[in-house]
Structures are given as structure tokens and as C-alpha cells.
């Protein structure tokens, strides 16, 4: 997958930008707060209709503007695509592929996939489980539209059930609907667990060799999927998982009512990472956990490649400066083959390392 060119109008600090890109490495450099991350964010947005750092689309629209337009010409699946996203202040966002309005955001992932690595991701292993679930959800959603739909449904059900559990004492009639919500959550949850288990099985094949190389042949990485305790084999078919989830819910019913929160289900899942048999989250050093985080992301890129026959576009935001020279060299070697966007502040160092095309960004413009 290659982003050949891009046009931004009224997006963040880009009033109007039009530029082509190299099919290999693109180095985006400039001082702080000039728009480097904004550019990566725009590319990421076209793959998922979602920004990694904005909660609402309106944050992406330039101050004092009513709309933003993102356009990209892509080469994907041996074809050329024109993807467009129109963000409207106070209105619904619109997505187009070759001029045809898309009905769901999932359709974007059939055209453009991205793997983003930003400075916060360096803490992927150390953070709470939510960060690792986000990593899994993001990867699987791009690969399996059905998963993205189930995840959206599960979140809606979860919010609804949370409201029931929060308010039931004041309004007892709410409990009448609890069983139905439990059942639907278990059904959707079973699907999520099934997909997560399969994705983690593949990560288990791809991530250890990446990390082995990355650590200079010193560290063996292991992954395990931690889900609802009544489930011994998460890879089983969703219909086999359903009764096990219902059983777990039933045994936690009282505790949920008492704590007024939703305790049972895959919204508590985690991906446990160990290095040489020891929990990375609990015992890993800073360097080890950062390296392992990058290994997971690079491994997910391999999985996309195996699945689609094309490398997803890799977006590396400010990451290389955080790594030592050996690890930088490893990353730059490992990512050859697909299109990459790297942002950095120090131009010379990266230029000599990558030999890619460079873009100097200043105040929302190319100079
Ligand atoms: P750093 O090196 O510090 O990471 P950067 O080049 O990656 O910097 P960006 O995060 O891309 O910087 O851009 C930040 C700039 O964009 C800020 O100055 C911010 O004020 C501006 N900005 C963010 N959102 C908007 C918006 N909606 N409208 C206009 N400007 C915006
Ligand atoms: Mg930045």
C-alpha cells in the first residue's frame, strides 16, 4: 500500500497542503509544533476514520474553519484509489472512495491500512491493560471488518449495562432488562474473544523472532492471552464460548449489582508479555519494554503483510530519537519493503540513515 500524494485543506495547522510522497521512506522533519505529527495523523485518519490522539473529529478541523478536507491518492491491491474524508463542524463526517460515498468506516480498511508507532506506544507494555487491548482492537479491526462491527456493538452494550448497574437501586425496573443485555454482551463478547485469540496466536508466531533479532539474540518473548477465567480455550468457536461467558456472568451477578459495575466480560482482557520467562510489565527494564513494544508493532505489520500481500503504511512518530543507535539501525533495516513515514527533529542523522525522501515542515507548510 502506497500513499502517492495527499491534499489537506483546513486540517489542524494545514491551511492548504499538496504533496507527493516516495514509495519507500519519507522523512518528515522540522521544529516542534510545526505539523509533523499532524501529517501522520491525517494519513492514519484515512485508514480508520479515527485519530490516535483526538477524541472528537472537530479537534482536527482548523481553528476558525467550518470544515476540513483530506484527500489521498493511493496505490493498493494493484489499483489506484482516491480516498477523501470531509469533516464538518457540527455535522456528520463523510468518506469517499473514488467518489463513491462509503457507508461504513470499515470499508476504509479494505483500501488503506496503517501501523502507527508514537512515543506513548513505548509504554505499551508498562501501561494498564487498556493500552494493550487498544493495540489488539486496532489491528484486528483493520484486518476483520466483522470484528470492528462487533467491537462497536459490545461498547454500546457495555455502556448500557453500566447504566443499569449504576441506577438499579433507584429504579428497580431497570433490572428487568439486565438478562437480555447480559445475553447480548456474552454473544458479542464471544466473537471478540474468538478473534482476539486467533490474532494473538499469529502474534505468537511473528513477534518472538522480531524481538529476538531486536534484542541482539538475548531475549525470548512470549505472549499469552488473558481473558475471562471460565474460558480454557479462547480459540474455540463463539458458540462454544457463549455458555462459558454466561456462566461467568451468573457467578458475578451479585458482585456486579453490589459494586454497580460491569465485572464480567472481555472488556477486562489483557495480553501478557514475558521476556525470558519473566513478566515484562513487572520486571522489564525501560529499554526492554520499549523494545518489546516496538517488536509487537513490527510483528503486526508482518501479519498484515501475510494477510493482504501488501505492507501497511508504517507511521513512526518521533520514535527513533528515543532509541540507541543499534536499535535505530535495526528498525530501519527491518522496515524496508513497505512505505514508511518517519518524523524527527534532527534532519541530518536520519537522512544519512535512510536515504529516503525528506520533507521540511514549517508552520503547517512544506518548505
Ligand atoms: P513536535 O515535534 O513537538 O511533536 P509536531 O511538528 O509534531 O511537533 P504537531 O503536533 O503536528 O507538531 O502540530 C502541533 C501544532 O498544530 C500546534 O502548534 C497546534 O497549535 C496546531 N494545531 C493543532 N490542532 C489545530 C487545529 N485544529 N487548528 C489549527 N492548529 C492546530
Ligand atoms: Mg509531533
Structure description:
By secondary structure, the chain is an alpha/beta fold. Helix content is 42%, strand content 23%. The protein is built from nine helices and 15 strands. It has a six-stranded antiparallel β-sheet, covered by helices on one side. A hairpin with a 2-residue loop joins strand 14 (357-362) and strand 15. Residues 36-37, 317-318, 343 line the site of magnesium ion.
Kindly state the mean pLDDT as a whole number? 94
Count of extended strands = 15
Q: Unreliable stretches, pLDDT < 50, 5 or more residues?
A: none
Bound small molecules, by name, code or SMILES, are:
adenosine-5'-triphosphate, magnesium ion
Percent strand equals 15-25%
Give me the strand/helix succession: EEEHEEEEEHHHEHEEHHEHEHEE
Shape verdict: globular
| Helical/strand content category | alpha/beta
Largest sheet: 6 strands, antiparallel
Q: How far apart are the termini? A: 26 Å
What's the number of helices?
9
Strands across the major sheet, in which order? 2-1-4-5-6-7
User: Percent helix among the residues?
Assistant: 40-55%
Q: What's the Cα radius of gyration?
A: 22 Å
